[in-house]
């Protein structure tokens, strides 16, 4: 090619050489380089994947076989692995020494140890390398680099690389130590200066096993104070969820506390789970069997204590088992009703057959007497009325079937859904507007609804009443809230009606519990629910606040109105809290009924229909507890861009991104993290964090595959303290 260039242009050899090198992507300096050594990287089976080649003057390049005994000088499409991988997999019980470069690896191996490094040196560690060493004992030997480079800029490159390696290994269960060699720049120098196997073994044994906290302390030694001072303070991203109150036993009716405590302990879940589900089960048992008039004189405002709510928790956190354990008494009541219904149906069918025969005989006798001019025979009794199946619980029903069930159970029903977002999404579909409106009415507990259908006629429900409980996953809740609460037909207050939706923190501590349930506590809950379902009938018990409880309610309501009429809250949260006007009286009534049922001081003939101060105080405190959870739930209402930035901020703080102080967008989106799994989302998140002084973009460098330099980001040292 050089000769051809000379023939075409008439240039001197050196000029023709430079032109030819430019065509093939090499520099003129390549002609003066001398290959010193090639380090081969092999797969698990010893097959050559690529080589790192050291040149003199000092330089490194990577190459891969071209299949015809030649080389391609890039790593496009090549799997990157640790140096000496076959040995690592063969000697699985040996401690692994990690150095910065291949020459140092060979120096340590020369002492009889098992050693490795990642390709391309400092700053190029990947999490996949840590996966290869998962669970193993590792000693990291950093290069002893100076505080500044030849240009006076902050350096410590080897130490920062070692910190990134250790951080990655700790996330894969490795037992990691750092050995700072007492002499020389690296392992090769140390060995040349008299290092021995015994000395290295002793140095390793003297070092403590690192944790995330001790690694942070070690890493802090190599942060340049002047560099840190140059950075502004990072703006808070509010990526962490707001704190929430944990339900206190004092918020739960005395009669239910032993049962709630027992379920939480046996299942090792937050007491919030069974506590809130127990209150929702109370609401489902009562519904329209009792009501409360919150104001002393205003008889036009009467509250039905049906409630909607549920548990927000990730999959596998015992939501469904807790719900089943708490509502089991209601399920047993419904099963008893079904058995009774089947007996009544059998009796009805026999009596109906007899009635039909009597009516048939009467008709024949009537015809005969009419022809003979005799008096009409006495008409048999009116036709029998078919028995109705009493229902407490509905799991999955069509809109029409739900309406039919309500018409047969005027005191209301309890709907239990395993996953609430599935039900929400169903109501969002085109053509379901009527069903959605019906459910909104059913939350009121006192609104009638009529359905007219050809073939089925007219079905009227005097007062639709429905309580509801279920579970929901945090990720699905976030996604649904952002879409549903935009201005539009979906923002009609459906979500805000779930006043008892709680998102508690989960205690990482867990104990193995294997004991029988508390039978006394269970029997008390069964007794309470069985007593409650006998109340009311066509005339619900009409409660009011006792005088001292009325004073408390007035003060509480004034504080609530001040809060919702201000301008400090998100509109969705204001809509949610405004429904607490009926929530507090409902809770107070339910708590009163539960404790009265447990003590035997409750029946349909009860005349002392006042809610005590104690239960009003419990209800007010329970509303404060629920408000903290509402704050957490509506905190999810951020734009996708801000959510992506919050996710990236969390990854940076925990060292999952930029552990060595730098990262690229590729390091982010290739992880597949939710909200950061595309280049565009990662780029937008980086832009937001750049504006917040968390990171700054620096000049990039080409990847081992070649191509344009990728954007790199420097992490503000103040982010991690």
Q: Given the structure, what is the number of helices?
A: 25
Strand segment tally: 21
CATH level 3 topology of the largest domain: Rossmann fold
Q: What is the CATH-assigned architecture of the largest domain?
A: 3-Layer(aba) Sandwich
Beta-strand residue percentage? 15-25%
The gyration radius over C-alpha positions equals 37 Å
What separation lies between the terminal Cα atoms?
Answer: 57 Å
CATH first level of the largest domain: Alpha Beta
Indicate the structural class. alpha/beta
Mean pLDDT: 85
Query: What sort of overall outline do the alpha carbons produce when their principal axes are compared?
Result: elongated
Secondary structure layout:
Elements: H1 2-9, H2 13-23, E1 34-42, E2 48-56, E3 59-65, E4 71-72, H3 85-90, E5 96-98, H4 102-109, E6 114-116, H5 127-132, E7 137-140, H6 157-170, E8 175-178, H7 187-192, H8 197-206, H9 212-220, H10 225-230, H11 257-267, H12 272-286, E9 290-293, E10 308-312, H13 319-372, E11 393-394, H14 399-408, E12 413-417, H15 420-428, H16 433-444, E13 447-453, E14 457-464, E15 466-472, H17 474-484, E16 500-502, H18 519-532, E17 541-545, H19 547-564, H20 571-578, H21 580-599, E18 610-611, H22 613-634, H23 640-653, E19 662-664, H24 665-669, H25 679-691, E20 695-703, E21 706-715
Parallel strand pairs: 5-6, 5-7, 7-8, 9-17, 10-15, 10-16, 11-12, 12-15, 17-18
Antiparallel strand pairs: 1-2, 2-3, 3-4, 13-14, 19-21, 20-21
């Amino acid at each position: 090619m050089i000769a051809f260039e000379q023939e075409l242009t008439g240039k001197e050899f050196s000029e023709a050489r430079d032109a030819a090198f430019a065509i093939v992507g090499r520099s003129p300096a390549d002609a003066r380089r001398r290959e010193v050594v090639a380090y081969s990287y092999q797969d698990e089976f010893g097959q050559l994947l690529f080589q790192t080649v050291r040149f003199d003057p000092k330089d490194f390049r990577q190459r891969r076989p071209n299949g015809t005994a030649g080389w391609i000088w890039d790593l496009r499409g090549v799997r990157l692995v640790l140096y000496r991988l076959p040995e690592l997999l063969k000697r699985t019980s040996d401690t692994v020494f990690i150095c910065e470069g291949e020459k140092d690896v060979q120096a340590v191996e020369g002492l009889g140890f098992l050693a490795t490094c990642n390709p391309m040196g400092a700053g190029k560690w990947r999490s996949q390398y840590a996966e290869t060493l998962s669970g193993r004992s590792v000693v990291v030997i950093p290069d002893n680099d100076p505080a500044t480079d030849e240009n006076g800029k902050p350096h410590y490159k080897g130490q920062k690389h070692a910190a990134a390696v250790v951080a990655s290994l700790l996330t894969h269960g490795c037992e990691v130590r750092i050995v700072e060699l007492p002499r020389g720049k690296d392992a090769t120098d140390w060995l040349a200066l008299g290092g021995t196997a015994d000395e290295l073994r002793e140095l390793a044994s003297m070092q403590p096993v690192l944790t995330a906290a001790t690694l942070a302390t070690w890493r802090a030694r190599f942060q340049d104070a002047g560099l840190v001072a140059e950075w502004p303070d990072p703006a808070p991203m509010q990526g962490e969820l707001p704190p929430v109150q944990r339900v206190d036993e004092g918020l739960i009716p005395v009669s239910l506390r032993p049962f709630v405590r027992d379920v939480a302990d046996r299942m090792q879940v937050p007491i919030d789970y069974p506590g809130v589900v127990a209150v929702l089960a109370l609401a489902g048992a009562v519904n329209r069997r009792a009501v409360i008039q919150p104001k002393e004189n205003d008889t036009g405002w009467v509250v039905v204590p049906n409630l909607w709510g549920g548990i927000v928790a990730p999959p596998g956190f015992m939501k469904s088992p807790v719900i089943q354990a708490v509502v089991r008494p209601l399920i047993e009541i419904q099963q008893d009703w079904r058995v009774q219904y089947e007996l009544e149906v059998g009796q009805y069918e026999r009596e109906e057959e007899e009635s039909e025969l009597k009516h048939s005989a009467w008709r024949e006798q009537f015809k005969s007497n009419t022809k003979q001019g005799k008096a009409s025979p006495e008409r048999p009794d009116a036709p029998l009325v078919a028995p109705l199946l009493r229902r407490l619980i509905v799991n999955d029903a069509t809109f029409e079937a739900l309406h039919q069930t309500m018409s047969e159970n005027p005191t209301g029903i309890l709907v239990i859904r395993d996953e609430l977002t599935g039900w929400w999404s169903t109501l969002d579909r085109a053509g379901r507007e009527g069903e959605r409106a019906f459910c909104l009415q059913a939350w009121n507990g006192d609104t009638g609804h009529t359905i007219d259908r050809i073939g089925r006629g007219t079905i009227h429900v005097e007062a639709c009443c429905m309580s509801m409980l279920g579970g929901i996953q945090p990720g699905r809740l976030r996604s649904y809230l952002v879409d549903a609460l935009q201005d539009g037909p979906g923002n009609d207050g459906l979500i805000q009606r779930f006043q008892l939706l709680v998102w508690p923190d989960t205690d990482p501590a867990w104990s193995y519990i294997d004991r029988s349930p508390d039978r006394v506590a269970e029997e008390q809950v069964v007794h309470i629910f069985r007593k409650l379902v006998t109340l009311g009938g066509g005339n619900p018990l009409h409660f009011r606040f006792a005088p001292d409880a009325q004073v408390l309610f007035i003060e509480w309501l004034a504080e609530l109105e001040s809060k919702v009429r201000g301008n400090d809250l998100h509109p969705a949260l204001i809509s949610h809290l405004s429904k607490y006007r009926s929530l507090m009286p409902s809770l107070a009534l339910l708590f009163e009924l539960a404790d009265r049922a447990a003590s035997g001081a409750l029946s349909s003939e009860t005349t002392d229909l006042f809610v005590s101060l104690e239960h009003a105080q419990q209800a007010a405190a329970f509303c404060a507890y629920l408000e903290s959870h509402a704050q957490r739930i509506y905190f999810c209402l951020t734009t996708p861009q801000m959510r992506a930035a919050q996710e990236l901020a969390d990854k940076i703080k925990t060292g999952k991104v930029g552990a060595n102080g730098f990262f690229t967008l590729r390091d982010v989106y290739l992880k597949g993290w939710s909200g950061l799994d595309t280049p565009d989302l990662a780029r937008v998140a980086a832009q937001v964090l750049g504006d917040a002084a968390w990171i700054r973009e620096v000049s990039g460098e080409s990847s081992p595959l070649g191509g344009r330099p990728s954007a790199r980001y420097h992490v503000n040292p103040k982010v991690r303290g």
